[in-house]
Protein: Aminoglycoside phosphotransferase domain-containing protein
Amino acid sequence: MDLAIIAQHALAQYDINAVSVSPVAQSGAMVFKIEDHHGLLYSLRVHKSKISTLETMWTRRDVLESELVWLDALNRDTHLTLPMPKRNRLGSYVTQVDDISCTMLSWVEGEQKQYFTSDQELKSTAEMTAALHQHASMWQPPSSFIRPTVHRERIQNALDLLKPKVREGLLDAHDVQILEAAGEKAMALLDTLPQNKMTWGVLHGDIVPPNIVFADGAAHPIDFGACGFGPFLTDLAITCTFIHPTARQQYIDWYGKHFPLPNEYVAQIEALFISLGLIGMRNALGMPESKQGLPTHAKKCASREFGRYVNGEGFLFTGTPCWE
Structure:
């Protein structure tokens, strides 16, 4: 069934009198912007990924339900401006259309950007991230709460999908050797990290400019589709991929004023940076438009952050970022 038709079938199960339904984007899910007769805006997500290598767990009903349970708690317990999950007429957060799950959220107004453009945006993002982690450090998820975890298995899965691309001629053998060595080193460090309330819990998982709405100088997080369990520093690592190395320490310091940084945080962020980079490459394999640029991206990573990491050299605050 066409995704637009699925969206219409899902929409019929909500108490919303829609006057417009507009497709916005598709990656992990197809997103439609909904406007009702009162002028209120919503985000309807049809959870059909265009990433063929995305793990199936991300579209499971119980996993989607858990995402919205956390969003509901964040809306109740914090002053953050966030998408508000909406239940359908049956009282459920997840609406089924055939075998496709759909979810509805309030629309967060503001400006989305492809990159950070000012110190104020970075500072506000750091404060917003710290507020999310502060809540997670005190929140007790219900027993039914199920979200993916950042751990060795997912990183190893990414490597297992990348290595055969050498034989297929897509990736350079030397580059992949460096990626693998860096991944092994990162996994070994992550295996040793403690899991306590101040270092590990539910996190957003994808705090990057396209997933932030900026309004009146404040950063508002959207798209919690990658949320899950892991070290809180995971969120800092993914954000740092969009921050120039010379500005990363200031960003981390802003965050640290509102939520405590663990000992050896630089080594941990670097290990997570490497791990998330590999998962990103795995996802790129499942997207035709991203796959074309993957060989160049992998070569840059191997010669920059990944290569330095393998050689025991720090890279978080020095070097050339991937976009240069």
Q: What stands out?
A: The longest helix spans residues 265-285.
